[in-house]
What does this fold into?
Amino acid sequence: MSTSSHPIDRLRRRLGHAVFLKVAGPDGDAARVRVHDTPGPRWFPPGSPIRQVHADVTTFVGGLRALLLQSLHPLAMAGVAGHSGYRGDPWGRLARTSTYLAFTTFGAEQDAQRMVDIVRNAHEKVRGTAPDGREYFAGDPHLLTWVHIAEADSFLSAHQRYGERRLTPEEADEYVAQSGEVARRLGAVDVPRTTAELAQAFDRYRPELAATPAALDTAQFLLKEPPLPLAVRAPYSLLAAGSVALLPQWAREELGLDTWSARTFGPVAGGLATHGIRWMMGSADRRASTIDEPTHHSRDLDETSSR
It folds into this structure.
């Protein structure tokens, strides 16, 4: 019996594809074809650190950590709470984020730039006043830089802890520099280019960070009230525990998450979660360069990314 026809392998593929569609949205297959099959140069070559990190399933842990960390900036959190619909449509927001990450990391240059332009235009509409009376604007370069460093640090931390192959110090610096290229195209300023500069950037933002009621509500939603069937809440709790364990201690303290169990069992839980997802979805190399499921149609990029 061939490997592809083995019942366990078929189950693995079905589960992996179900997870993929949950993260990428109903148009995920079409977007994946567009990302990998569109001819032309890319922003980042095959084998580069940003491709290694963003192709690995550790982005599941890193992405959740990034959301928790980003919520600690009151103005960034006010924009999310007021405009993103993260409670009403969390999976739609996740799909838009994963689509953006896929196109800017692996897509053809014209599609990657088009995706950046779409997001920049969307940011123009995200303006308002935070509960503390300060005005916010999603396109503010200072806020864009905070969102970027929280994301870059989270993806890199998750990869270095749970990844298939850790980056060398030089590769880690290159990852920070490459992810920073995308952030600058989006409008961020003073973007770190090395891991040392990334740590310094956190030091600069630290005085601005605090757990507002909206941030605490987000943590409660993400960690305790995820919009998931009961059958998959237990595996998700492992992923969530791994994400919390990777947060800096000061961030866990701000969010009321710095418990003995989080510090002790969180890393083990994160490892179990990533191993399980990797079993379902396959190796990072395969996901970065192939399309597992065929699709018979493709929609316009604007339609796919604007949902």
Observations:
- DSSP finds 16 helices and two strands in the chain.
